[in-house]
Design goal:
By secondary structure, this protein is an all-alpha fold. It is 68% helix and 0% strand. α1 packs antiparallel against α2 (26-44), α6 runs antiparallel to α7 (102-112) and α8 (117-133) packs antiparallel against α9 (137-150).
Length: 187
């Protein structure tokens, strides 16, 4: 549903509330004014994103992904402040099944902006993991430092420490082989 239709629905509900108040049904008019606040609230906080957050809280990634797929065109359905969270949630739901698809979602999420510091820390941590897995150690180190700086509550210290330990491990080059295996014949 287009985001501006919610304002039209709210205006119709307020018009009905005013009509009821004029006809001495003040109680029902007040109830409708309170109900008219719901579409206005859903303009700024999209219902599909709220339901996806609820499913993520229950650790149900598949269901959260289903709610997010209901958003067909995020630019016409979401308020601009929600663009970043849409991409952030898409990245989190895809992280387990398709880890290679996470990086573009997290980059877009940080580009559009995330309100909470811990969300920005999680996005930069995911970007650091993608950079390390692709062999870009310097970029991964910079992103880990930024994630550590953003993680003021200390919720991701274990993950950051684990990623830094992975950085310290030597990487095997594709052209390097074990010299003891050269003379080994086939069985």
């Amino acid at each position: 549903m287009n985001k501006y239709i919610k304002f039209v629905i709210s205006a119709i509900i307020i018009a009905i509330a005013v009509y009821l108040m004029m006809n001495r049904n003040v109680g029902w008019g007040i109830v409708l004014v309170v109900i008219a606040a719901l579409p206005i609230l859903l303009f700024f906080k999209n219902e599909y994103i709220l339901l996806a957050f609820w499913q993520l809280r229950k650790q149900n990634m598949a269901k959260a992904g289903e709610w997010l797929t209901n958003i067909k065109n995020y630019q016409s359905q979401l308020h601009q402040s929600q663009y970043g969270y849409f991409h952030y949630l898409m990245g989190l739901t895809q992280a387990q099944d398709h880890p290679t698809k996470v990086e573009p979602f997290m980059k877009k999420a940080l580009e559009y902006g995330l309100n909470m510091k811990h969300d920005r820390a999680m996005a930069t941590l995911n970007l650091a993991a993608a950079a390390i897995s692709k062999g870009r150690k310097q970029e991964g180190q910079k992103l880990l430092d930024e994630a550590k700086r953003l993680d003021s509550a200390g919720m991701m210290t274990d993950q950051i420490k684990m990623m830094k330990d992975q950085l310290k491990m030597p990487t095997m080059q594709k052209h390097m082989h074990n010299p003891n295996m050269r003379n080994r014949g086939k069985f």
